[in-house]
Amino acid sequence: MERAVKPFVIGRKNWLFNHNHRGAEASAILYSIIETAKANGLTPFDYIERCLEQLSHPNCDLSSLLPWRVKLGKA
Prior knowledge:
Blueprint: H1 2-12, H2 21-39, H3 44-55
Helix pairs in contact: 2-3
């Protein structure tokens, strides 16, 4: 159980630097993406890199970028 909450404890001080609502919202979105990638056995950096690369193409199929559909290396 302690391992499950460790990322929240480490990030707690970092969240103090969110000076406004938009910054806090952006942090929450990125944190959710990272943790969802981990939960699906993906390396977060590789997953985000793949998403950004695919999103740069026109007519990108967003459903193909869902973490449970992407095949990458293990976390």
